[in-house]
Amino acid sequence: MDDKIVKPEPPLGGPPQGSRPHAPVGDGCFLGEEMKPQAPSYKEALARIKNWFRANSLWVMAYGTGCGAIELRPLATARFDMERLGIAMRPTPRQSNVLIVSGYLAVKSLKRVIRSYEQMPSPKWIVALGSCTINGGMYWDSYNTINRLDLYLPVDVYINGCMPRPEALVAGFQELMRRIKKGEADGWRHYMENLDWYKENQKKIITDWDLPEYNW
Amino acid sequence: MKEILKEIEERFGPIWERVQRPKLAQVGIEPAKAVPLLTWLKEHRGYVTLVHLSAVDWIEQGEFQLTWLLGNPETEERLMICSRIDRENPAAETVSGLWPQAVTYEQEINEMFGVSFPGSPRQGVPFILEGWKDIPPMRRDFDTVAFVEKHIPGREGRKHIDTRTYIGEKFGEKGYLHD
Ligand code: SF4
Question: Tell me: the pLDDT tens digits for B85-135?
Fold first, then answer.
């Protein structure tokens, strides 16, 4: 797959910009931002089409950590019904491409989350829910929860709040779709390119490291 | 509740007791007699359910308090059996032979407080903390904030408000806080 035209990366080794400033929001039109006056090269057009397909095929892994996972139930079921947006739950990492980290993450669960994330097929995205994933939230001084998720995994969209309501989640998903369409949600590529940096951080916090270097 | 408390006193010697609600009472007993009492309650008085087993760190007295909460499903009465053990090299008898689910409670207390239950399976097997090297985190002499600052990187710019100072400043009453 040749996706070279999509945005260049932050320099290797620097802290990943999990919450990269969002590009100005377009009108959500069919192929991302406004069409250029001259026709794009066929590669770019192809990349846009691919991204459009990807944005409309979000499969969320049915996994929840922390309190925020409670809000996924109304979101997934009749009350807010996320399938109307084309988002559905899948039971295993091999079948999904969106991982929602729904709140605080114990070091023990971080290990499982890393495992699941690496098993998901690329392209894949992480949506981080709640202030616990951003700066530790109200669990910032807990001996067993991490305080900042983007040191360990690439985050594409943060949804703040404690806990965010399902409406906020819907907004977050729409933002994710917008960013995928524009080719900006490329945390998975950032992860692959800065794997050493991520692995180093992961190994620092997981003291009994027994994972393989990459969980294929 | 009164009758059973009286009967316990007759059979097991001096106890400390308190009836908290019509169907809930607390019994304090020395550690050596705790498991015989639990066995007797289970086998002869219908307290067949172990609802909970918990530990409390009484650091000032140099003791850990273990509480077995028993339930009698027929009369819907509950009994809390409390027992204080020494904080140095804490150990207590296991009840995993009476209630299999006690294994998990004992494993957790072993990990979180460092109380050992000789004879209980899965002692020393990590439950929540994997690769933990510090002192057990639920002990009150474990400094959580210092641990977090040392081991868990956070995000710059987070402002911490110390609750005690904040309330003291806000209400202008230092004596309002007990210390
Ligand atoms: S952000 Fe709030 S609701 Fe979410 S996991 Fe943390 S404490 Fe729970």
Answer: 999 999 999 999 999 999 999 999 999 999 999 999 999 898 888 888 889
3-state secondary structure of B110: helix
Chosen from A143, A147, A203 to mutate, greatest number of chain B CBs within 10 A: A143
Q: How far is B129 from chain A (nearest CA, A)?
A: 7
For ligand 1, is residue A130 a contact (CB within 6 Å)? yes
Give domain A57-204's CATH number out of 3.40.50.12280, 3.30.1330.60, 3.80.10.10, 3.30.565.10: 3.40.50.12280
Tell me which residue of A87, A86, A57 sits closest to A72, measured CA to CA.
A87
* CB-based contact A141 B145, cutoff 8 Å: yes
pLDDT tens, position by position, A53-62:
999 999 999 8
Residue A197 CB contacts under 8 Å (≥ 6 apart), including other chains? A12, A13, A16
Kindly report, residue by residue over B55-68, the tens digit of the pLDDT: 999 999 999 999 99
| A212/B79 Cα distance (integer angstroms) | 49
Most ligand 1 atoms within 8 A of CB, residue of A65, A104, A145 to mutate: A104
Quote the pTM value.
0.79
Q: Which CATH class is domain B2-126?
A: alpha beta
Q: Check A147 against B131: CB less than 8 A apart.
A: no
Ligand 1, atom 6, lies closest to the CA of A132
Task: Report yes or no: A189 and A4 within 8 Å, Cβ to Cβ.
Answer: no
